[in-house]
Write a sequence for this structure.
């Protein structure tokens, strides 16, 4: 890290940027802090503070970085609270929930994928998260497999890839469910809306999240959501209005809630409308982007004031 910080310091001296925007906190933002650059906007990626700053070196690195940051940007209140606990002044925090292109991710009836798979009358659920333990995809698959034994109409679109691919694929084959799970791998950004529009329910079993972009994409397409009961998800999904929560890591609770979602199909039209309305209000990238620009201006203002104060003290 010291060597990298020296190299970065040389790059910054040569390029002379107006602002550096860096994250996650304990890696890129820490390097910029070690290089001594200002103005620095450090930005959390969610788990770096929610999990990585709980104790030890990760906590020290987060405190060190935030103390030397001119502004801090995060995507949800849960991360904001962690930053406050770590010593970041509230007036220098900007909550910036990213957002999505609402014209690209929009509700629309899609039947081509259902027809292609022979799933015209199925209840289709979708996951677009990386196949890692942090995102809980192993829990999601196990919960689906158990629910599918009781509900013949259930099907799963399992997009993406990751280190758990071999284990997950083997588990699906073991249960004889290979014809009820479609695994297309990584899907192009341009094609993602068609997958969301072909489904009845979005699922995320993540163990740690801020404001999940994949969840925002699903909501923008009018998908009800079944998500793990963690702080980041609670800020987006209201049970009974946009979908359901299940206990994080609890396969049996996921199974029950998935079957409940199937049984409550009559509630889905209202949930679809509410999901889209929520995305339009809170997940509009064109509007939210301005908050990031605000963070840059905040950082520049604080750095300028700090420099003036230092000059006044030592003049």
């Amino acid at each position: 890290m010291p060597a990298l910080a020296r190299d970065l310091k040389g790059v910054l001296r040569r390029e002379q940027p107006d602002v550096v925007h860096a994250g996650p906190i304990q890696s890129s933002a820490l390097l910029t802090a070690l290089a001594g650059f200002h103005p620095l906007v450090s930005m959390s990626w969610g788990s770096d503070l929610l999990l990585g700053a709980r104790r030890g070196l990760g906590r020290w690195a987060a405190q060190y970085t935030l103390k030397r940051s001119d502004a801090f940007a995060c995507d949800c209140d849960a991360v904001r609270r962690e930053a406050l606990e770590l010593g970041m002044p509230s007036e220098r925090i900007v909550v910036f929930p990213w957002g999505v292109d609402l014209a690209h991710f929009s509700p629309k009836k899609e039947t081509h994928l259902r027809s292609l798979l022979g799933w015209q009358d199925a209840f289709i659920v979708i996951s677009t998260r990386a196949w890692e333990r942090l995102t809980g995809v192993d829990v999601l698959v196990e919960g689906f497999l158990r629910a599918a034994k009781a509900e013949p109409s259930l099907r799963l679109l399992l997009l993406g890839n990751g280190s758990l691919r071999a284990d997950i694929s083997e588990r699906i084959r073991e249960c004889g469910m290979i014809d009820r799970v479609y695994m297309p791998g990584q899907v192009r950004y341009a094609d993602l809306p068609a997958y969301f529009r072909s489904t009845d329910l979005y699922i995320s079993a993540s163990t740690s999240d801020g404001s999940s972009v994949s969840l925002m994409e699903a909501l923008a397409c009018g998908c009800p959501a079944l998500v793990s009961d963690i702080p980041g998800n609670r800020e987006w999904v209201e049970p009974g209005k946009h979908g359901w929560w299940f206990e994080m890591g609890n396969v049996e609770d996921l199974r029950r809630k998935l079957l409940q979602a199937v049984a409550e199909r009559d509630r889905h039209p209202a949930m679809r409308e509410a999901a889209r309305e929520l995305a339009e209000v809170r997940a509009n990238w064109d509007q939210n982007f301005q908050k990031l620009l605000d963070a840059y201006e905040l950082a520049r203002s604080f750095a300028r004031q700090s420099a003036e104060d230092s000059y006044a003290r030592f003049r």
In short: Residues 285-314 form the longest helix (30 residues). The radius of gyration is 22 Å.
